[in-house]
Amino acid sequence: MLPYLQSVHAKSKWSKFANSPFWKTLTDQANNLNPSIFKSKRIEFLRQSYVTKLQEKHSKLLACCRPELAVDAILRLPMTRIERDRCLRWRFGWLPLGKPQPCPFHPSELFNKRHSIQCLQMHTRLFLPQTIEDPLSFLLNKLPQKTKKIPKLSITAWLIRWPVICSILHEMDYLAHNQLPVPAHNPGNLFVQQLSTNSS
């Protein structure tokens, strides 16, 4: 890789990598790099970048995510396309239609993220204290990275909470479209089935 990076054409893809912030941190050690050092330096760079991002003005959503360099469990766990889409939308701070609409239950209030937490009684339904600002993000951060070897107590908790999370996101989708929600059909069933299999 080094020969490509040290003698690259200005418009090549190698040139873009050679001019990246990450590679610039390695220029003094380029000739002594091996795969192990490269990997550790990359992880260190990502962690430092994460800390820097947290200190920026618009970092509230990032602060709600788990502070780990790993693929989010939302992308790994079994769920329907719609369920995954709703989880990701919440993670990114997006509501359906983009611009908040009046809440069907409270017409004088816009159905934004803060109002949805109160309107859908998330703390009560998810058995969480009011001191947790964002109960959905709090639990999404607790999702297991792997579905094997999960403690039985944790399995029991997710068997209760995961269908409720999916139901809340289902209701939110309807309310954000200014419609009264209909009951969800088997919410979170794919993940529940896998958890049930693992517990047996």
Report the radius of gyration as a whole number of Å: 22 Å
| Uncertain spans | none
Total separate domains: 2
Helix run count: 11
End-to-end Cα distance, whole Å, is: 49 Å
How can the largest sheet be summarized?
none
Helix content: 40-55%
Shape: globular
Classify the beta-strand content into a percent band: under 5%
Count of distinct strands: 0
Mean pLDDT: 82
SSE-based structural type = mainly alpha
Order of H and E elements:
HHHHHHHHHHH
Keywords:
single chain; 200 residues; mainly alpha; 2 domains; 11 helices; 52% helix; globular
Report on this structure:
The protein is mainly alpha-helical. The protein folds into 2 domains: 2-56, no CATH class; 73-199, no CATH class. Helix content is 52%, strand content 0%. It is built from 11 helices and no strands. It has helices spanning 2-6, 13-18, 21-24, 35-54, 60-63, 81-92, 113-119, 122-125, 135-140, 152-176, 189-199. Helix 6 packs across helix 10 and helix 10 runs antiparallel to helix 11. The longest helix is centred in the last third of the chain and has 25 residues, at 152-176. The protein is globular.
